[in-house]
């Protein structure tokens, strides 16, 4: 469920959790219930617009870097992220508008519209792909959710969902298992599996604290399973929801301007 | 006629010398046949392999596609064009295809590559190298919209097996990014990593839908012809029947420039070395003929003294080299034939050497480790006439030398 990664990573506020439109597979009751809960989470997180400052820490076999970024979002399909630190890369920006993703490099003063070939490339050197950033609105059409477990685990009340992609959905995963706290309905963990049921990527949430008037996880970490020493971590420093943002902010022109 | 007999007899006055010279001429034939024959065979093989790898011997495409292949440039009325082309003589196969770039992703990884969207009903192993190279599974059927055929290297990189799903992302006609899921129906292995790791086959109907093409649009029609040497001529012929400024008809020389460049360079060095060998052989022939003339100056002197005109003497020496050339060519055919048949049917096997190098490819095609020969008719004519005229030309100077004989001078000495 890239939707979640994206949204949390970028916007935290305007997450669109899959609300699933299609039936089949598990029992209808379980699906309906899953949808209800997910809808609840959705409502809890959704804002019409957001403004956030976060830092991203990337650790790979070859390098390690920390960046501070500022992000704005409006609705589901408009978002803008700019690098604040390090100074060397200040001003580097990514703009998402609809299904397009643009990248701006201040050093060369060039705006690049990312082509399909670049979509699977790494986003700013992290473990997110560019595609993770763009693809979110389709998620509700792409998966069927079902509650697979409810109750105590490790001394906590949790709900576990399985999200199964539809046969025709352009999704690489075989399934996604997501666990949330039963009481607060906040996410704990998401595990991505391939078709053979082999875990490939894991996303964990932590450091729950009150931001923008509600409790949310401030730290989110993505780890590729085959390289357990690598990760990308996003730590929220500031979050505002439902702020007044102009549409012009999400234009190619504004990529070049400093805010 | 008298002169011919005289020339022939003269030739056999020194049997050993004539045979040795004849042998050096036949060696020329031998080397020429070996070089040209392997060239003719290898080039045809490479061109045909390259043509069946996607672009054909002749490609019909929207104007400008060859220089910058973007998906917004597309051919219309492809079905009609194809049937018109199929009716031409010498056309073995014509297929409607879409070619483009895409990203291919599995749960564990993603790689960039290019896709060739094909219509399974008009494709066959004979005219499509990738289908020919399928090692597992089978080509998707016409109504299998979720089928995909990928290479073994890509399958390994993406950790995918037969039947697993793969997501491909590309850019549609409006420039929007579109993604689709497909299931692996077959895996091919050509032995070329850059092909096995980057090329995939997709069903054309699905790709049309994904890209926003109508059911009669495609990137190109690729034409395979029976004889690769006629590609340029066929390209002109096809362009004439299409007769549309918006459509370009290109031969493989234009669409597969890497290969074209490689073959041109190889051919040039091949011809150059053949010319050098030819010159060395010609020098040998010249030497022998000249010696034969020099030691007969007295004889020539007498002949001229008793009234033989210099022009006849000139013709006599030229006739000697003519018969020597004929003799050399016959010897050449005799010693070359077994060698040629050996190479033609059995060939030189370099498999072990190639395996050590991990396969050998050039110009984007894998070379066959067994080297065979094949001679085109025009190559045979070129070799025979080349060696023949070389011998005749070598005879010019000795003939001139013979004519210059002064009867008085030669007869003075004993």
Would you write up a description of this structure?
The complex is a heterodimer of chains A (about 260) and B (about 425). With about 260 residues, chain A is of the alpha+beta class. Chain A has six helices and 13 strands. Chain B has a six-stranded mixed barrel. Chain B has a two-stranded antiparallel sheet with strand order 11-14. In chain B, strands 12-13 form a two-stranded antiparallel sheet. In chain B, β12 and β13 form a beta hairpin. In chain B, α10 (about 255-295) runs parallel beside α14. Chain B is elongated, with a radius of gyration of 30 Å. Classes of the chains: A alpha+beta (about 260), B alpha+beta (about 425). Chains A and B meet through α3 of A and β2, β3, β6 and β7 of B.
Low-confidence stretches of chain B: none
**CATH fold-level assignment of the domain at 2-44 and 137-240 in chain A:** outer membrane lipoprotein receptor (LolB), chain A
Q: What is the CA-atom radius of gyration of chain A, in angstroms?
A: 18 Å
User: What is the CATH level 1 assignment of the domain at 2-44 and 137-240 in chain A?
Assistant: Mainly Beta
Count of discrete alpha- or pi-helical segments spanning 4 or more residues of chain A: 6
Mean pLDDT of chain A: 76
């Amino acid at each position: 469920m890239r939707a979640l990664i994206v949204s949390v990573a970028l916007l935290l506020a305007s997450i669109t959790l899959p609300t699933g439109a299609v039936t089949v597979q598990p029992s209808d009751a379980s699906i309906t219930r899953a949808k209800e809960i997910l809808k609840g989470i959705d409502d809890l997180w959704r804002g019409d617009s957001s403004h956030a400052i976060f830092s991203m820490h990337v650790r790979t076999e070859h390098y390690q870097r920390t960046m501070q970024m500022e992000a704005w979002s409006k609705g589901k399909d408009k978002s803008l992220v700019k690098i604040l630190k390090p100074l060397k890369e200040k001003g580097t920006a990514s703009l998402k508008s609809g299904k397009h993703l643009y990248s701006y490099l201040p050093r060369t003063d060039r705006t690049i519209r990312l082509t399909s070939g670049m979509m699977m490339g790494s986003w700013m050197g992290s473990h997110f792909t560019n595609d993770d950033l763009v693809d979110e609105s389709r998620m509700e059409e792409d998966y069927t959710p079902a509650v697979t477990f409810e109750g105590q685990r490790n001394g906590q009340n949790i709900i576990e969902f399985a999200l199964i992609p539809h046969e025709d959905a352009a999704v690489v995963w075989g399934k996604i298992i997501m666990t949330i706290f039963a009481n607060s309905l906040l996410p704990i963990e998401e595990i991505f599996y391939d078709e053979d049921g082999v875990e490939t990527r894991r996303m964990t949430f932590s450091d729950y604290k009150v931001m923008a008037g509600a409790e949310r996880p401030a730290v989110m970490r993505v780890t590729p399973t085959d390289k357990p020493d690598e990760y990308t971590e996003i730590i929220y420093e500031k979050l505002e929801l439902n702020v007044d943002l102009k549409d012009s902010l999400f234009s190619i022109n504004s990529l070049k301007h400093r805010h | 006629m008298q002169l011919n007999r005289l020339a022939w007899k003269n030739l056999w006055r020194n049997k050993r010398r004539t045979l040795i010279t004849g042998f050096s001429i036949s060696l020329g034939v031998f080397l020429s046949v070996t070089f040209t024959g392997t060239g003719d065979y290898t080039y045809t093989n490479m061109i045909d392999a390259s043509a069946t790898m996607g672009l054909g011997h002749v490609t019909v495409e929207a104007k400008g596609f060859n220089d910058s292949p973007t998906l917004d440039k597309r051919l219309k009325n492809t079905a009609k064009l194809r049937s018109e082309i199929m009716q031409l003589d010498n056309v073995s196969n014509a297929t409607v295809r879409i070619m483009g770039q895409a990203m291919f992703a599995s749960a564990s990884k993603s790689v960039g590559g290019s896709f060739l969207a094909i219509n399974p009903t008009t494709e066959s192993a004979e005219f499509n190298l990738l289908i020919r190279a399928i090692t597992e599974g089978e080509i998707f059927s016409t109504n299998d919209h979720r089928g995909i055929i990928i290479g073994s290297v890509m399958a390994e990189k993406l950790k995918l097996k037969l039947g697993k799903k793969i997501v491909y992302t590309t850019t549609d006609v409006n420039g929007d990014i579109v993604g689709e899921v497909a299931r692996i129906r077959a895996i091919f292995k050509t032995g070329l990593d850059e092909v096995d790791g980057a090329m995939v086959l997709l069903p054309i109907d699905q790709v049309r839908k994904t890209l926003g093409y109508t059911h009669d649009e495609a990137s190109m029609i690729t034409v395979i012809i029976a004889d690769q040497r006629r590609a340029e001529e066929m390209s002109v012929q096809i362009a004439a029947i299409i007769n549309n400024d918006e459509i370009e008809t290109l031969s493989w020389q234009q669409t597969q420039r890497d290969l074209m460049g490689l073959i041109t360079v190889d051919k040039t060095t091949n011809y150059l070395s053949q010319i050098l060998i030819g010159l060395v052989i010609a020098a040998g022939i010249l030497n022998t003929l000249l010696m034969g003339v020099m030691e007969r100056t007295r004889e020539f002197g007498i002949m001229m003294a008793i009234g033989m005109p210099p022009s006849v003497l000139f013709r006599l020496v030229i006739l000697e080299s003519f018969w020597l050339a004929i003799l050399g060519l016959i010897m050449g055919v005799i010693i070359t034939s077994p060698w040629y048949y050996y190479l033609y049917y059995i060939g030189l096997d370099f498999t072990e050497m190639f395996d050590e190098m991990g396969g050998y490819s050039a110009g984007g095609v894998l070379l066959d480790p067994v080297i065979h020969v094949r001679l085109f008719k025009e190559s045979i004519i070129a070799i025979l006439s080349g060696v023949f005229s070389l011998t005749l030309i070598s005879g010019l100077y000795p003939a001139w030398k013979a004519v210059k004989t002064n009867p008085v001078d030669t007869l003075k000495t004993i």
